[in-house]
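Progress against Task 2.4 (sequence-to-structure conversion) is shown through the following example record, which the project officer requested during the mid-term review.
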Amino acid sequence: MKASEIRDFDEKELSKRVAELRKEVFGLRFSNTTGELNDTAALGRAKRDLARALTVARERTLEDTGELGAERPASN
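C-alpha cells generated for the chain above:
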C-alpha cells in the first residue's frame, strides 16, 4: 500500500487500518516463529505498511498540534 493511499483515509479509517496491520504483523510473526509461514517476505511488507500508516497518523497529530514544520532548536 502506498503512502498516498493511506493519506486519503479519514481518521477513523486510519486508526482501523493501523489496528488491522498490527494484528496482521503479529500473526505473521507468530506463524514465522512456529515455522508455518511460507512467504516470509509478507512479514516485511506488513511491517512496512504498518510503518507507513503510523507515519501518516503521526504527521496528522503533529499538524493538529502545529508542530509539523516548526524548526527544531539547534543543539550544541
